[in-house]
Amino acid sequence: MSMVDRLLKFFTVGGVTTLFGVTLYGLLLLVLNANLFLAYVIVFAASVTFSYFLNARFNYRIAPSLRTYIHYVQSYAVGFAAGFVLITICKALAVPLADFWIAMLSIPFRFAITFLLADRAMVAREPAEPHVKTK
């Protein structure tokens, strides 16, 4: 499958995952009045796990495993940190948006960063040829 095909499927899974995340943000921030940073951590962890299983099944067609899950989560950690920094900057600059909308700003930012890293984690790579030292 080409990278473009994987991107389109990743985008579709991302759309479903985004709906899941927005719903969870709404519950945590608008209904339960949770702290924005706590909500960000909870939604991130739940959404990455949800996304992993959807992508493993529908995009990459691989059996979920602890190894690929760990690599997938590691690739999303970079996007998590970038989104967290974005939220922190918005709060420090007193951006005149509700916490819910500041959290929403982080979604496309994270998506752009994580696709290439997650794709690399999920696509089976041929093992490199062992280096043979010659005399």
Commentary on this structure:
There is one protein chain. The chain has 135 residues and is mainly alpha-helical. The protein is built from four helices and no strands. The chain has helices at 3-31, 36-59, 66-92, 99-122. Helix 1 packs antiparallel against helix 2 (36-59) and helix 2 packs antiparallel against helix 3. The mean pLDDT is 87.
Short description:
The chain has 135 residues and is an all-alpha fold. It has helices at 3-31, 36-59, 66-92, 99-122.
Task: Describe the secondary structure blueprint for this structure.
Elements: H1 3-31, H2 36-59, H3 66-92, H4 99-122
Helix pairs in contact: 1-2, 1-4, 2-3, 3-4
The run of helices and strands is HHHH
What portion of residues belong to β-strands?
Answer: under 5%
The tally of strands reads: 0
Task: Give the overall silhouette.
Answer: elongated
The helical percent reads over 70%
End-to-end distance: 41 Å
Report on the biggest sheet: none
Integer-rounded radius of gyration: 17 Å
Low-confidence stretches: none
Mean pLDDT, nearest integer?
87
Class by helix and strand content? Answer: mainly alpha
Note the total helix count.
4
